[in-house]
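Late entry, written up from scratch paper. The run itself happened at the end of the previous shift, but nothing got recorded in the book at the time, so transcribing now.
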Amino acid sequence: THYIELKGVRQNNLKDFNVRFPLHVMTVVTGVSGSGKSTLIKQILYPALQRQITGTGEKPGEFDELSGDWKMIHGIEYVDQEPLGKSSRSNPVTSIKAYDEIRKLFSEVAQKMHYDFSPSYFSFNMEGGRCEECQGEGVITVPMQFMADITLVCESCKGKRFKEDILEVKYNNKNIYDVLEMTVDEAIEFFGKGNNTSCKKIVEKLKTLSEVGLGYIRLGQSTSTLSGGENQRLKLATYIANAGNIKGHTLFLFDEPTTGLHIHDIKKLLDALNVILLNGHSVIIIEHNLEIIKSADWIIDLGPTGGEKGGYLLFEGPPEQLINCNNSITAKYLRPKLEPIKRT
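Output as recorded:
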């Protein structure tokens, strides 16, 4: 088995141990809050690997040596909870490049109606079709000196972001504003009824959002309104949508991607992570969720508690063996999840 190894990790409360991360599998780093999970991954492993692979990056926390097969890794992605785009214009459908196809489709409909609207007319980022009063935002922000800014619905477009004649262009009785108001799952159903190439491409890209449990978000929703867990899953969808363009073996690091995720959607998230593994990449996740932990190929458990009494490497190996580790709090909670499997 190929692996990377960190030797002598001792940043913050980590107690000077060696730890191995196998490649091409899903490794989950577990332990109570304050046990040193983020220190190990975010402050040591990520910057240490980034410096080796790219020659740039922050100085890693204290450790002795990075060894093993790290040369097999061509890229590293730390998928954090920050929004993909800081601007209020950034939204899920532009992130996964589905909006290009939607705009193209509406432009084709416009041509049939003898309107000379290119795809850019259906963008709220460019002049042409957007409402210029609010510059395609749908709202006007009024700055207040000593209070929070006030946002008012734009008088000119009534919050619809586009000019009147653009809104007259309809595909199956829906204009571009109606489409942006749809949830991902509604849009998959709507465009799934179309039999042209654009519709097939749109559905294909939107499915990546549904597959990471984001079927309920609106296409035009600003990414700045998404939670940390939602932002991580949106980034995951973006990587899957562009999987064909990722060159070489990439190591993906996730920090609690299940935050705020419904139990039914955890299976979807696991399937999406599996897509990354099937494409020949590696995954390391910091996680408390037992469904994710029991599905791991390899577990690194830190503890036994948080703070000064934490930071010890309690266990490394498959989840089935972790349940025999007596001083691990993770093992205690994982046992009931795994023992029924062993009995059948």
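The chain has a mean pLDDT of 91.
(Scratch paper discarded after transcription.)
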